[in-house]
Write a structure and sequence with these properties.
This protein is α/β, with parallel strands linked by helices and 192 residues long. The chain has one domain: Spore Coat Polysaccharide Biosynthesis Protein SpsA, Chain A, CATH 3.90.550. Helix content is 29%, strand content 23%. The strands form two sheets. The chain has a seven-stranded mixed β-sheet, sandwiched between helices. A two-stranded antiparallel sheet has the order 2-3. α1 crosses α4. The chain is globular, with a radius of gyration of 15 Å. The termini are far apart.
């Protein structure tokens, strides 16, 4: 188990949203709240030592909303480089601090609850479970928690693979049905 005070949360919010169309899916309303803010709420409730949001820029609408929620903003304008470029920027920001682990969350997963994030932290052990992932039907996925010892490996990821290689050996924490759903298309919003 690890205390939230020893964890930095990385909130990846710099994706291309290509399947959503011209609009920014993270600013699209879901129950009258932007998707990204709904997803960020679980991190805010968890109260980790630091909250880092990787956004396409430092001063756009999304960055402004997240900064108001206490997130440090790290810019990744190269959204074409894939998820791994954002992950590297987030890990670099965490590595500069004293936190013992990084909690990776995705801004297009607005149904994840703080209770699930706490379950990930409860399962964590730097020796026996240095990587803990969420699980849907036995498939490891974010949100996921990574010990400082694996930051170097995360920093070398490329493309849209992110930390998938590390997730293959992760300790798994199943999530409630539907909690790990993500928003990819406008129709996904109406499903909720």
């Amino acid at each position: 188990m690890i205390d939230p005070g020893a964890v930095a949360a990385i909130f990846l919010a710099a994706g291309r949203s290509s399947r959503f169309g011209a609009a920014d899916k993270l600013l699209a309303p879901l129950d009258a709240m932007p998707v990204a803010l709904r997803a960020a709420a679980a991190i805010v409730e968890l109260a980790p030592a630091r909250r880092i949001a990787v956004c396409p820029d430092r001063d756009g609408d999304l960055a402004t909303l997240l900064a108001a929620e206490g997130f440090e903003i790290v810019a990744n304008p190269d959204t074409e480089a894939g998820l791994s470029a954002s992950l590297r920027k987030g890990i670099d920001a965490v590595a500069a601090g004293p936190e013992r682990a990084a909690l990776l969350c995705l801004a297009d997963m607005p149904l994840v609850r703080a209770a699930h994030l706490r379950a990930l932290l409860a399962r964590f052990d730097p020796e026996t479970a240095p990587v803990v992932a969420s699980s849907r039907d036995g498939v490891p996925m974010p949100p996921a928690l990574f010990a400082r010892a694996v930051f170097g490996e995360l920093a070398t990821a490329t493309g849209d693979r992110g930390g998938r290689a590390l997730l293959a050996s992760a300790a798994l924490v199943p999530a409630a049905a539907g909690e790990l759903a993500d928003i990819d298309r406008p129709a996904d919003l109406s499903a909720w």
